[in-house]
Amino acid sequence: MDAARLAQLPDNEVEQLIVSNIHPPARDPETWAAIIHPDNLARSRQLLVNVHERTASVLRRRKTERDAFRTECFARGEAGKADWFGTQAEYEATRRRGANFHQRVQRAISELGREQRNVNRAQSVEVAHGARETLRRLSVAVQRHQAAHARAGGIADQTDYELWQLLDRLTVPTGPDQTPTTLRTMLDIYWTDVTPVTAETAQRAEAEQMMRSGPQGRPGSFSGTPRARHAHNGKDLAS
Question: How far is CA 68 from each of CA 76, 90, 107, 176, rounded to the nearest angstrom?
């Protein structure tokens, strides 16, 4: 039983499969993997919750009926008490089986809840990683834009300065303490490589420094010509 096939089954059949696999020692690993597959997990958990609610309802009804039976038996005197005590062992055995099943369902619901939280965390990490990569690419593009102006020696507009200054104003959390770190620092330390400074690159760096300041900017400096790369593999993305 794979995840795709299980997803096509009606609820009653899926419920039967889940119930027959809630006890870990009796589990079929392949079937259980299909039950907790991310595509089936939410449905599986809801079906188990339904089973849990039905079982709880049955246990409550049986207790109510048993209490009523006790009242009736004791009202009939010794003969009624004999009927009561004569059925007590069977009732207790049935009650224990129901309670044990109810607890197994509860543990399975908790297990599926943990699986769902793991899936949610993994998806959140994936989304965050994608957003961070998008921000890295955008930052590299802004940095290249500034470097291109420096190489050309042209006169930048105020809108250019405002764009470049975003690298110094916007931050991302980094490290175990989630320290706010500017995009320019991320570029300098994590997101770019720097080539050795030559006379030509030193002159370009001076021009970039002047352009970074701008009419309303603040001073800064480069220590070389940035070449974009991924933080983990060091691959040079500059053409």
Answer: 13, 17, 31, 62
Least confident of 78-92, 108-122, 168-182, 186-200: 186-200
Confidence of residue 123 (pLDDT cuts 50, 70, 90): confident
Q: Which residues contact 208 (CB under 8 A, 6 or more apart)?
A: 146, 147, 150, 221, 222
What's the rounded Cα separation, in Å, for the pair 42 and 226?
47
Q: Tell me which residue has tokens 């890295």.
A: 136
Direct distance between the N- and C-terminal alpha carbons of the chain, in angstroms, rounded to an integer:
50
CA distance 109 to 1: 21
Structure tokens at 48: 């188990």
- Per-residue pLDDT, averaged over 171-175, amounts to 83
Q: How far apart are CA 210 and CA 166, in angstroms?
A: 16
Question: Chain centroid to CA 167: how far?
Answer: 29
Q: Which of 77-86, 133-142, 161-170 has the highest mean pLDDT?
A: 77-86
- Alpha carbons 79 and 65: distance in angstroms, whole number: 19
d(CA 38, CA 153): 55
Closest of 199, 200, 205 to residue 146, by C-alpha = 205
Q: What pLDDT score was predicted for residue 204? A: 56
Q: What pLDDT was estimated at residue 93?
A: 94
CA 90 – CA 95 distance, rounded (Å): 9
What average pLDDT does the structure give for the chain? Answer: 80
**DSSP helix/strand/coil, 182:** strand
What does the angle CA 212 – CA 218 – CA 223 come to, to the nearest 5 degrees? 50
